[in-house]
Design a protein that fits this description.
The complex is a heterodimer of chains A (about 130) and B (about 140). By secondary structure, chain A is an all-alpha fold. In chain A, about 70% of the residues lie in helices and about 0% in strands. Chain A is built from 5 helices and no strands. The model of chain A has no long low-confidence stretch (mean pLDDT about 90). The model of chain B has no long low-confidence stretch (mean pLDDT about 95). The chains are: A mainly alpha (about 130), B alpha+beta (about 140).
């Protein structure tokens, strides 16, 4: 589906007075791309909502439970608590797993998310089935 | 308000990905990206984005709201079709010697022994958008 973006002439003239000529085109291309993305974004959100309106939204507790399950899987695999892993990995005391380079980054992302959700929603590990 | 900001950030990334449909391989079985509820509620986006030339971008970022949404912890690893690392951006604090600490990048394949050498980042700010733009510019232009 094509999208037409209009730029008022007076805006073009105004920009030309303050921006060097070679940068004018780039300015308008950037502005058009930004506007195009906003239009696309609104359409995609609308389409997503329409396609998913019959499905229940995930609750914070469901998302927390899934994160916890994944974090526990990492803790079990590497025999280390996330409380120890996070500072050790951040400081370089432990390096990436050479057999699975993304594993520790993934663990880090999940562990921080878990902490964030515990702060926001007051969840605690013990309240969830581990 | 915070959920609206996070949702907006998430959808901005999803739109960006849609705009990159000409180089991304969304039908690839490895394709994965957090859904909106997970991203907004956990303030975290994880993605595996295969490209049409067989290369793959692994992305993982934790979001935080300051004056805007920022990726306060991130890693982006871009691998070639052969599975060799091409570059990596992350902000683990394990390279204080780098001038852009904690933000740094690694170039080339993973080392067989020892640590991977770190370099200052070559982007003003490392974001999902900036990394995708770099890939298009350097490998698909």
């Amino acid at each position: 589906m094509s999208v037409t973006i209009t730029v008022p002439d007076e805006l073009v003239e105004k920009v030309k007075t303050v921006v060097p000529q070679p940068d004018v085109e780039k300015f308008f291309v950037d502005a058009a791309q930004k506007q195009l993305r906003e239009i696309m974004m609104a359409r995609m959100q609308e389409e997503y909502r329409r396609a998913h309106e019959h499905l229940p939204r995930k609750t914070p507790r469901e998302v927390y439970a899934r994160l916890l399950k994944e974090v526990i899987a990492f803790e079990s695999k590497y025999k280390m608590s996330s409380d120890k892993f996070l500072p050790d990995f951040e400081s370089g005391a432990i390096d990436e797993d050479p057999n699975d380079w993304m594993a520790f980054y993934r663990w880090r992302g999940l562990a921080y998310s878990l902490i964030s959700m515990e702060k926001r929603y007051g969840f605690r590990r013990g309240e969830h089935n581990e | 308000m915070s959920e609206q900001w996070l949702a907006s950030y998430y959808w901005n990334i999803r739109t960006l990905i849609a705009q990159y449909a000409d180089i991304l391989a969304s039908e690839d079985t490895r394709w994965q990206i957090s859904d909106e509820d997970e991203a907004v509620l956990s303030e975290h986006i994880a993605a595996t984005l295969p490209f049409k030339n067989g290369s793959v971008l692994y992305a993982d970022c934790n979001l935080q709201i300051e004056t805007a949404v920022v990726e306060w912890r991130y890693v982006y690893v871009y691998n070639s079709a052969e599975g060799q690392r091409v570059f990596q951006y992350d902000n683990n604090e394990h390279h204080p010697e780098v001038s852009t600490h904690p933000h740094h990048m690694h170039k080339g394949p993973l080392p067989k022994h020892g640590k991977s050498e770190a370099f200052p980042i070559d982007l003003e700010i490392v974001t999902f958008e900036g990394v995708l733009q770099k890939i298009r510019h350097e490998f698909f232009s």
